[in-house]
Amino acid sequence: MRLERLAELGRGLAALFRERFADLEAIWFGHLGDGNVHLNVPRPATWPEAAWLERSAEVEEAVVDLVLALDGSLSAEHGIGLAKRHLLPRFPEGAALTELRALKRTFDPDGILNPGKVLPPESSP
Question: Are 41 and 58 in contact (CB under 8 A)?
Fold first, then answer.
């Protein structure tokens, strides 16, 4: 997130959780000095797994929509990780998947370095 939009993100996230997800706790942390905000929303102890998975998907969608509206990015200093890889095509950097795959093939023609970890499989968007 660009630093000049960080306060706007904070206000947007606070409103989002107040209005739509008041039943959940939002823990913000990270590298605020460089615009790298992390969000952790722990599962309430009394919630069954199925209910939590459904609700956390709603949270993820709403947070991604807000980040996109503010021209933010999905990636952190360590990359997007497996859990968020499915979101990559929604972000501008997702448009670079073709180029990223070409680079991967150049430096790892046999696909032996961290297979399936960095990029979605070729059959995925």
Answer: no
The total of other beta-carbon atoms located within 10 Å of residue 88's CB is: 21
Virtual torsion, Cα 33, 81, 62, 17, nearest 10 deg: -60
pLDDT for 87-120, tens place per residue?
Answer: 877 877 666 777 878 888 899 999 888 877 767 6
Note the pTM of the prediction, 2 decimals: 0.77
Calpha distance 100→51 (Å, rounded): 36
Q: Which domains does the chain have, with CATH numbers?
A: 3-72 (3.30.70.2740)
Q: What is the 3-state secondary structure (H, E, C) of the chain?
A: CCHHHHHHHHHHHHHHHHHCCCCCCCEEEEEHHHCEEEEECCCCCCCCHHHHHHHHHHHHHHHHHHHHHCCCCCCECCECHHHHHHHHHHCHHHHHHHHHHHHHHHHCCCCCCCCCCCCCCCCCC
d(CA 61, CA 110): 35
